[in-house]
Design brief:
Distance between the termini of chain A: 57 Å
Oligomer: homodimer
Largest interface: A-B, 32 and 32 residues
Largest sheet of chain A: 7 strands, parallel
Number of strands of chain A: 16
CATH architecture of one domain in chain A: 3-Layer(aba) Sandwich
Chain lengths: 446, 446
């Protein structure tokens, strides 16, 4: 019997916990779910005979030691900042660890120690990062096996709303952390295009767009992610002339969001004066030149350089930003205020279902012919619990846990799911679970 | 006999040291100049019979204790970051301290302890901060004494180049720390206009301009400084509807500098890939969209939205940014590269003289009439040693030191030169030394 300890029983852990409990009898697993809220952990296992729910506080050294020492595999669904604690404890007690979070420099620093103990800490096993790595590597390895030379790799992902629940002018609702959406893209975006490095500052990010088409779902627009260049090393594409990763939104989103970026509404670095007394209207006014005779709507349109009657102004108006209502946040930064405004308007209702879209575009040369492969995945959430996010994060993590428990992964150290013997079985099973990539290949002409 | 210990003998300390040594016999002062470079300290006192030069390292606890304990007044010309060390040592040994640097939160924290020991730590005694405080407070106090109610306070300052040395298309040369010029304005600028708070993000800063006229010197443009709002408290202007501080440049500077801001060339937060191999041309290209058929000059003009043949393009071209020469900086940020480019082009030659310009604009209501006072100061450097910067920083600090040594300042604690009994004698003497404000008053019509 293998013991599996899942830390964190939040919304994004639902699908993972279900999978492991559903298969626990068949594979002889002893599954424990620990959460800071005991009732949340209990609720997640309530439909099953098997499984154990406990209150677990990662910051309590005693229970951290006792629970982790008493298992075989730890699956951590905690926020990224808490992973070093989990990792150190797993290393101390000689336990394998899996997580959907990004590998940090701190984690990379213990690679030798993890290897020395014969352990595997397998990370970035969700959807983005996770499925993006695996599905891209499958195509990249395939092209290399055919003797193809990669010229361009572009990879796009978006957490959006399913078409039949897509009923607001922004064509966007929160399917993930709202704060991260407000702050998205701050800093500089870096990528490479036709051999030329390109750096895009935040205030140009949402006007630096690509348009992509996804079969059955129509058009999307894409803005560049922060660091596309790190994927050169990660994916073995050191010399590739073009590499770009980006975030997908429905057309028109970025041009309207860019207004907030231009105004400075997403700044999280300072507290606004008298924020508790501000109305939504005054919030916007704070970023506009003073005018004694123009309305705020007119000021805004003129300042940004858009028509006074336009879809962009409609979108901003729909968010309630021209209302004279009080915002009611004390000592708030612009970003905090934006978050409150957006949570009011962009939250999913219980009947809403989310949508996960991913597309990779590869251009390569084979036998002196340029070819293009486009590989796309779409997945719609089933309901407000079995969201596309929870499903596409939970399944790959659950499958990896199963493979590790079965002794089918022999890699050791700090790892990502980039090797064929890891990504192949995971992608195959994901396909059987409805998470599949459609691949199209064609000759490429500029 | 009063002992005065000047720490730091760099360029900006020259005028200060000269003043104190010139007056040391008359006032019976024992002046010591300490610098990390003994020869630099020696050079600064070489023209005088009196005075002592020593090698002094602020990071050496022994000499720090022995030199500071052995004086009456410490004048610190060290960079701002080193002031806490000086302040702690002065506090420990019960010595007064003067400096041209900004008061930090750390310094404010020891106010009670400084008072308890009967000491004065008088800061912000240079030109900006320094003369700006004193000259503004003189007018503000004057308006209040007349029963006037302040409606608007705008204050502008610039370190520029004297008209007859103003021979480049930017009409700018470095008279102060180049790195600070490259990074100027990053973050958000805050001010108040007609009762409305205004926040200007960095990427709009250099297009948010005022135009001002200074008698004898013509037109200048002004971009807002980071935090104008702090001056409400500082100057007792809590309810003033309009308050703005800004930096002066010659017309046309900001529109061209804004190109670098728009492109992201002043970002200091990341290292550019292969920076040691970059040419100036490639540096600019890194911030532009890839184009197979347009020149970099064309790309730039189109991207920024300016004519391909324009003064802005000429200014950028004059800096050498379109040259195919190698930059030759390893692991450099964009800001570091910009600094190197600018130091090549904007450094003062030995024959160049700098120019310090300051202007305060006050609007106030008195007896139901709106009035305006404009108070302006210009000062041209004499040569490359007696620069306007060194003179306008050194004289107020030297005069304050004299007043303190004579027992004419009875304030204690952490102070700024905002009180009448401090600023009046300093401004009066500055006037006799050629640093004078010209005040014009008129009725104000919108």
């Amino acid at each position: 019997m293998k013991k599996i300890f899942i830390i964190g029983a939040g919304l994004s852990a639902t699908v993972l916990i279900d999978y492991l409990l559903e298969h626990s009898v068949e594979y002889d697993w002893d599954v424990t779910v620990g959460d800071i809220s005991l009732s949340q952990a209990q609720e997640k296992i309530s439909a099953y005979q098997q499984g154990r729910a406990i209150k677990f506080d990662i910051f309590d050294p005693e229970s951290r030691a006792s629970e982790i020492s008493n298992t075989d595999i730890v699956v951590s669904m905690l926020p990224g900042a808490m992973h070093p604690l989990v990792a150190q404890e797993c290393l101390r007690h000689g336990k394998h660890m899996l997580s959907p979070s990004y590998v940090t420099a701190e984690l990379r620093g213990i690679d030798a120690a993890v290897r020395a103990k014969g352990l595997l800490f397998l990370n970035e096993l969700g959807v983005d990062p996770g499925i993006d790595h695996m599905s891209a590597m499958r195509v990249i390895d395939g092209i290399k096996k055919r003797g193809g030379k990669l010229l361009s790799f572009k990879s796009f992902c978006g957490g959006l709303v399913a078409p039949d629940c897509d009923d607001n002018p922004w064509k966007y609702k929160f399917s993930w952390n709202p704060r991260n959406v407000v702050l998205a893209g701050q800093g500089v975006a870096r990528y490479r295009e036709s051999g030329q490095y390109r750096y895009v500052p935040y205030h140009h990010l949402f006007s630096t767009l690509e348009t992509v088409e996804v079969a059955g779902y129509g058009e999307f627009e894409v803005y560049p992610n922060r660091d596309s260049l790190q994927y050169c090393d990660l994916y073995g594409l050191e010399d590739i002339p073009t590499i770009l990763r980006g975030t997908m939104r429905r057309p028109g989103f970025s041009a309207a969001w860019d207004v907030f970026v231009q105004l400075g509404c997403t700044d999280d670095s300072y507290i606004m004066e008298n924020s508790h007394r501000l109305t939504y209207r005054q919030f916007i006014q704070s970023f506009l030149p003073y005018s004694a005779d123009k309305s705020i709507e007119e000021c805004l349109a003129d300042y940004i350089g858009i028509p006074r009657h336009s879809e962009i102004i409609d979108k901003i108006s729909w968010l309630g930003l021209f209302s004279a209502e009080n915002i009611g946040l004390e000592n708030a930064t612009p970003a905090t205020i934006m978050q409150k405004i957006l949570v009011n308007k962009w939250s999913m209702s219980v009947d809403d279902r989310d949508l996960l879209v991913m597309q990779h575009q590869f251009i390569f040369e084979q036998d002196a012919v340029k070819k293009k492969i486009v590989s796309s995945m779409t997945y719609e959430g089933v309901d407000s619990v079995h969201t596309a996010m929870a499903t596409t994060v939970g399944f790959p993590l659950a499958i990896a846990t199963k493979l590790l428990a079965m002794g089918k992964i022999d890699a050791r150290g700090i790892q990502l799911p980039l090797a064929e013997n890891i990504y192949e079985p995971i992608l195959d099973e994901l396909e059987s679970l409805g998470i599949r990539f459609i691949e199209e290949e064609c000759q490429y002409r500029i």
